[in-house]
Write a structure and sequence with these properties.
Largest sheet: 5 strands, antiparallel
Number of strands: 7
Pfam family, one: DUF4333
Number of helices: 2
Strand content: 35-45%
Keywords: Signal
Protein name: DUF4333 domain-containing protein
Shape: globular
Strand order of the largest sheet: 1-7-6-5-3
Amino acid sequence: MCRNLFLALTALVLTGCTMHAGTTPQIKRSELEQGIGDSLQRQFGQRPAQVDCPDPIAAKVGESFRCVLVGTDKTRVGLSGVITEVNGTRFNYKIQVDDKPMS
């Protein structure tokens, strides 16, 4: 994915649907990374070569997280996300891609 596409991304609202059980519902790292990549593919026709997110993310409204998108040209761009809604095993989150690539 080219640097220009990363920089064109501002805020996206994304939806996921898998959590694993525990005392606090958690969103698996792999599910979050896959969801972000799938949504970028659907909305922009391209997906990053890699999405790296922390593990796990608490599935609760207001929970924030940081991930890194890696383009096919090895450009790395950070993104911030926040869980905006949790309904059973479904969750929504919003991401904001950083204005500049990481150095």
